[in-house]
Amino acid sequence: MTVRTTTPDLSSSNPDWWRQAVIYQVYPRSFADGDGDGLGDLKGVAQRLGHIAALGADALWLSPFYPSELADGGYDVADYRDVDPRLGTLDDFDVLVAEAHRLGLKVIVDLVPNHTSHQHVWFQEALRAGPGSAARERYVFRDGRGAHGELPPTDWQSVFGGSAWQRVPDGQWYLHLFTPQQPDLNWGNEEVRADFRTTLRFWSDRGVDGFRVDVAHALAKDLSEPLRDLGTPELSREDALPDLPPGSHPFYDRDEVHEIYRDWRKILDSYRPPRMAVAEAWVNPGARRALYARPDELGQAFNFEYLQAGWDADELRRIITDSLATARSAGASATWVLSNHDVVRHTSRLMLPPGTDDNAWLLSGGHAPEVDEEAGLRRARAATLLMLALPGSSYLYQGEELGLPEVADLPVEVLQDPVWEQTGRVRKGRDGCRVPLPWTTTGPSYGFGAGGAWLPQPERFAGYAVEAQDGVEGSTLELYRRALRLRRKLQDGEELRWVPDAPAGVLHFARSDGWRCVANLSTDPVDLPPGEVLLTSAPLDSGRLAPDTTAWLA
Fold this sequence. Notes:
Layout: E1 22-26, H1 28-31, H2 42-47, H3 49-55, E2 59-62, H4 90-102, E3 106-111, H5 121-129, E4 141-142, E5 165-167, E6 173-175, H6 190-205, E7 210-213, H7 257-268, E8 276-279, H8 287-292, H9 304-308, H10 313-330, E9 335-337, H11 346-349, H12 358-363, H13 373-388, E10 393-397, H14 419-422, H15 466-469, H16 476-490, E11 497-498, E12 506-510, E13 516-520, E14 533-536, E15 549-553
Parallel strand pairs: 1-2, 1-10, 2-3, 3-7, 7-8, 9-10
Antiparallel strand pairs: 4-6, 5-6, 11-12, 12-13, 13-15, 14-15
Helix pairs in contact: 6-7, 13-16
């Protein structure tokens, strides 16, 4: 087979550029520090865009950079149409977008529509205005139960633990599905809807190419009186949806939410090319997730089943097959992700025995059980090459191209994630995957900035630095670069065909033009099928595919 020299059209004129794209997630506070204050910022991102372009990504997704007190890592937004002064200015953002476009990169930004920060001007106005005011109608305020209103309006629970209601001095309660510093908006209020239309246009007019929609499944709520209890705290969890009839939960995945996204799509499609969007929707897989990905709504939805899967061939084959079918039913392309800003990095996670509680492992400092980082890196490289061979969009998280492990042994005194305190120091939180990136092998923060870093980097990060891997044959960085270059030439169509009679523990599928991917998840070497080996995640073992290794073949 001859590898095509043409590549998919990812130009600004192609409205479907996102369907097969590789999108690189940037957590701005941990990517690069442009002013030396220890906190990553937009100038730092702009200065390092060449790294993302050289990697071969098609777009970058910026996690929130808006004004925030960081009650939830920036997902508590005080102003949706500005930049946190600690991270830069709107002018800095414009420079970043212009440089990204010059390098051929699209820019996707995070949108957080379920809740604001309690510092948002609207919420401060609501607190001053008092019960029954128009300002309170933008949020979900209710009187309490009990003889004196001393009990929460319902038994709904916050994602971070405890009641989802917070009382204010005048006696009313407001809803917060996340932290008390993140009051939920009332999406039945037309003023709320109009303001987010303005926000979509504001960033689209500044050249943003798309939006990642946070908690996309929670905007619409059944607020009809009397509010109904769930009866058990467990039903407040996002993963409790299978226990209820579809669309019947009072605040998750209600059918009314799709009206909001059909309205948004009209705005997104008014631009040339249309702006893309992807839903973070923790809903039942299959038909419910497909609703968010319909072409007249957001167009794409994250596939969390793949991220949560273990290193098991049968489980992965089922999830891949089902995910492709779900995307196809919606007219969307599938999405694949192994790491992000909320989960243990897959270099570490994929080595944890089935059934291991991630939080318990983090609380042990990464020692119960111990994780072999070298073996974890081998498995992570195989997982990545498998993911990149799948049809659809692949989302990468900053640092995975360096093979970074989870920093599980952060001392509790340096933790920044509010989850630690909000859960009564029961959940260690997400700081271990947010430790700033190492760019150089030396320096106070390994090239992250001129000074230190807002989270301490372990000494072993020096060996993972970009400087240590750049141009080094066989390094994880060079593997990613080769894989992404080759993927652009090979990627065509959105189908795959499972090759029958693959050995136990082996995934083998064929793509368009006959190129194939073989991933060995078993404990024994296996023979490769005939064909030209294009790329492997690890060296072959006497011509055979070793355990925890993936190969692409022509």
